[in-house]
Write a structure and sequence with these properties.
Strand content: 5-15%
Number of domains: 2
Strand order of the largest sheet: 1-2-3
Structural class: mainly alpha
Shape: elongated
Order of helices and strands: HHHHHHHEEHE
CATH topology of the largest domain: Alpha-lytic protease prodomain-like
Radius of gyration: 25 Å
């Protein structure tokens, strides 16, 4: 357990470091893409510039949110302000959706009024480079999620995997448009490719929103974690009289578990406390970092007669 505890203690620092690296990557990408977009007329490159501005704002908001969550006064927010992570994740969804709508509008305009793209070769290089950078950052976020759930890191992982696919696809589309620039149908590759990128962005936005809304509404934990809790209760079957209810929810990166159990009223309180502590430790070992509360109840009296 000491290794797990250490991993969780180091979690916020690792998340901050990862977000700082991601923010630096976004700012550098905005600089490069903005320079390339200024010297070209490609809708794909312009769309990526808009997307990068939104991504940079999302990463900055995520970084500031994690710091705010750790500094929230415990006396005012007894359960923390973990749900702020979910709210920021929803803001990322809004930014991604707004970028997608803007790119789609430009794409449909260029389909009706096609133009010959120029100055796209530097854009191909930038897309190829940042496709690999985004994949590396996405994989880093995915590794962090294996040690501790965080809505912000989950949304960042989806954001960067989407960016990797988007940049890779846009780079290929620019290369194809450059190769067939002398053909009539080659004029449509640029706006069509940007529409495919829009589909990637909307899919990622939907995935982030689906998870964040559930946590904001205090949805129960996923079935796999519920099964872990039931296994712990089965292991301690002889320590309590009756199982009543499990209540679970997430608040940001924190997991809360409440167990309502009946205990033998003839047992000394000290024994009941020892059994409660044994059950609580068992659940925490199964779900590291969970905040577990066991609420004792006396068995209901049998009906008369």
């Amino acid at each position: 357990m000491s290794g797990v505890a250490h991993a969780h203690a180091a979690g916020p620092t690792e998340r901050d470091r990862g977000l700082r690296v991601a923010l630096a990557a976004c700012l550098f990408d905005v600089l490069l893409t903005g320079t390339v977009a200024f010297h070209s007329n490609s809708l794909v490159i312009l769309g990526d510039l808009l997307k990068e501005c939104g991504d940079g704002a999302a990463v900055l908001a995520a970084l500031l949110t994690l710091r705010a969550v750790r500094r929230a006064p415990a006396h005012k927010y007894a359960y923390g302000i973990g749900k702020l992570e979910n709210l920021v994740s929803m803001s990322i969804v809004v930014l991604m959706t707004a970028s997608a709508v803007g790119i789609a509008g430009q794409a449909f305009y260029h389909l009706r009024h096609p133009v010959v793209p120029h100055g796209t070769l530097p854009g191909i290089v930038v897309f190829a480079f940042y496709s690999m950078v985004a994949l590396a950052i996405g994989l880093r976020n995915r590794r962090m999620l294996r040690t501790q759930h965080s809505p912000i890191i989950a949304s960042q992982a989806a954001l960067w995997f989407s960016k990797s696919a988007f940049d890779g696809l846009m780079g290929l589309s620019l290369a194809a448009a450059l190769a067939w620039s002398g053909t009539t149908w080659g004029l449509y590759l640029d706006p069509l490719a940007s529409l495919v990128g829009v589909a990637f962005m909307l899919r990622s936005a939907w995935a982030i929103a689906s998870e964040s809304v559930g946590d904001l509404l205090d949805a129960a934990l996923e079935e796999t974690l519920q099964i872990r809790i039931l296994r712990c209760l089965a292991t301690h079957f002889d320590d309590y009289e009756m199982f009543h209810e499990i209540r679970t929810r997430r608040s940001g990166s924190r997991i809360y578990v409440e167990l309502f159990l009946d205990f033998d009223p003839g047992l000394p309180m000290r024994t009941v406390r020892e059994r409660i502590e044994g059950i609580r430790k068992s659940v925490v070992e199964s779900i590291p970092g969970a905040d577990v509360t066991v609420i004792p109840h006396e068995p209901s009296p049998l009906p008369a007669g």
